[in-house]
Amino acid sequence: MAVGIACTAAFALLYAGLRDAGLPSLAANALALAATMGINFTANRRLTFAASNGDLRRQLASYTLAYLLGLAASSAALTTLLALLGHPRGPLDTAAAVAAGFVATAVRFVLLRAWVFAEQPRTA
After folding, report:
1. Is 92 exposed, middle or buried (0-12, 13-18, 19+ CB in 10 A)?
2. What pLDDT is stored for residue 45 in this prediction?
3. pTM for this structure?
4. Contact criterion met (CB below 8 Å) for 14 and 32
5. In 3-state terms, what secondary structure has residue 50?
6. Over the stretch 21-73, which tens digit does the pLDDT of each residue have?
7. Which of 34, 43, 57, 122 gives the lowest tally of CB atoms within 10 Å of its CB?
């Protein structure tokens, strides 16, 4: 849970800063998620799933795909939320991005547990 809270806080700060700098919401969403991707992968690999002894290349490739699927889900959720809210700016915009980020987090967590960091069968 600590990994999720830390990454969400970092995402919110980055998203708000990028939006204040004039980036469109979807670009700010993608960049903020990308900026937190490395720490998210590393913390989940070591702390949440204790999968540090797994094949790093396979895990990283799988995580990248899980990240992209999460990005697609959060982009769709963010587009919908911002449209429903009348395309706000400021704190309400950031709140919508964080809510959409929860969608990405849920997608990623399911994929991390079931696929990315799942125990691999041993080969003889």
Report:
1. middle
2. 93
3. 0.85
4. yes
5. coil
6. 999 999 999 999 999 999 999 999 999 899 988 899 999 999 999 999 999 99
7. 122
